[in-house]
Amino acid sequence: MNALPVPDRAYTDHCLELLQTLGACTARRMFGGWGLYLDGLMFGLIANERLYLKVDPITEPGWQASGGQPFVYNGRGRSVKMNYYSPPDETLESPAAMAPWARLALEAALRARAARPASSGSRARRPALKGKRAGGPGRRPTKR
User: Where is the TfoX N-terminal domain (predicted)?
Assistant: First the structure.
């Protein structure tokens, strides 16, 4: 089994500096890369030493027009395009240049979160089975 390359923390730190106009962003290791978060909301990722930021149908045309490339990975023998695009190269030089693109990514992530249905954790749980129906080791044999 081939090991994934260890992501470069220096590049990740550079990206976090570029995104500082949003607030205190954090990075978490994931799948051989990094997930980028603000207040627990993922809005970007770093894969193969490249920054990608969240897009949605509202913002994707702008990312495409700027020359951004989508994040694509190979899974189960096919290419899968994710809703993340690389920002324009010139934005990688300063937080001020990155700010409008970072804001677009955060807004797309916020819209995606708002569109998600309520989590299943809010549903009422059925009580655990007790007695004969539970079928555990203390179950008594049924007389027939």
Answer: 17-109
